Amino acid sequence: MPRSDSSDRSSRSDTATPEPSRGGARLVRVPDDRDGQRLDNFLSGQLKGVPKSLIYKIVRSGQVRVNGGRAKAERKLAGGDEVRIPPVRVAEPGQATTPAKGLLEAMEASIVFEDARLLAISKPSGIASHGGSGISHGAIETLRALRPGQSLELVHRLDRDTSGLLVVAKKRSALTELQALMREDASVRGRGIHKRYLTLLVGRMPDGVMSVDAPLHVGLRQGGERHVQVNPQGKPSLSHFSVIERRGGQSYCEVRIETGRTHQIRVHAQHIGHPVAGDPKYGDEAANRRLREQAGLKRMFLHASTLEFSLDDGRTPYLLNAPLPPELAAVLDRLG
């Protein structure tokens, strides 16, 4: 099992060779070690300090071209591809682009594991995984501000209101292998990543393990807000809920998920009639108000507690843990 080693500072920053182009845009040849990287993530590395929302906007508008053609943000690049990047105004030094001191301190304190290629934090609730949609600094931007000399890339994401384990790759090789594990590619068949969450569900769940096998479809509401529903046309989604104990008529549970769909646990919990306590989108409004008044629950009770996986073709196992945050432990205590 790997040991934490916070002394590694050797990872290099993203680099690519720019070539001049007409109209203020530039052509950047994708380095071989970026083969397979998503276009939006590649652009984030090239356009330091530019919000993700603006990156998506210039991609959607067709200003970004790959090998001369329009491309979507999720396109996987190949080594040697030529990416046209339009001129984008980046804030000048001295402008307010640095995360607030309190956020920097909170992110430094949230680190629960680090070695030469990975860094894991226990992300606080209320902090987005990345900036965009009016958010200047998410977890990854704040970590990059803390570690300006390192190349840091998000391996996965957590909902803004969900706390818990968020893994960041410090080396490209680790990012590539972990993303293959997330996708369960043929090259890593039989391994995958085991994810466990802790949650408080409204009402009394039955004993034993309740498996929810219900496809999920992501739709957009007016204003662009994502809303997920159980729908036969959706993607296969599988969650396993098991009761740890009952407190104050509610069910404190561990959830193991075999797929990683948007809002999966929250929608599956709603689907079985036991929504996540404190969930403002899919929860029970009356129950949320009651739990806030009686137990002081001021956030969604959902925490990513454990990640288990292996790197180096299965030779190096990792078991990462993030303890339940104090504010959620206090809610359990008040419920008796």
From TrEMBL:
Bias type Basic and acidic residues, positions: 1-12
GO molecular function: 23S rRNA pseudouridine(955/2504/2580) synthase activity; RNA binding
Presence of keyword Isomerase: yes
InterPro entries for the chain: PsdUridine_synth_cat_dom_sf, PsdUridine_synth_RluA-like_CS, PsdUridine_synth_RluC/D, PsdUridine_synth_RsuA/RluA, RluA_PseudoU_synthase, S4_RNA-bd, S4_RNA-bd_sf
Matches recorded under Pfam families: PseudoU_synth_2, S4
Domain RNA-binding S4 positions: 37-95
Catalyzed chemical reaction(s): a uridine in RNA = a pseudouridine in RNA; uridine(955/2504/2580) in 23S rRNA = pseudouridine(955/2504/2580) in 23S rRNA
E.C. code: 5.4.99.-
Stretch list, region Disordered: 1-35
TM region(s), chain numbering: none
GO biological process per UniProt: enzyme-directed rRNA pseudouridine synthesis
Alphabetized UniProt keyword annotations: Isomerase, RNA-binding, rRNA processing
Stated family: Belongs to the pseudouridine synthase RluA family.
Job description of the protein: Responsible for synthesis of pseudouridine from uracil at positions 955, 2504 and 2580 in 23S ribosomal RNA.
Protein name per its UniProtKB record: Pseudouridine synthase
Organism ancestry: Bacteria, Pseudomonadati, Pseudomonadota, Gammaproteobacteria, Lysobacterales
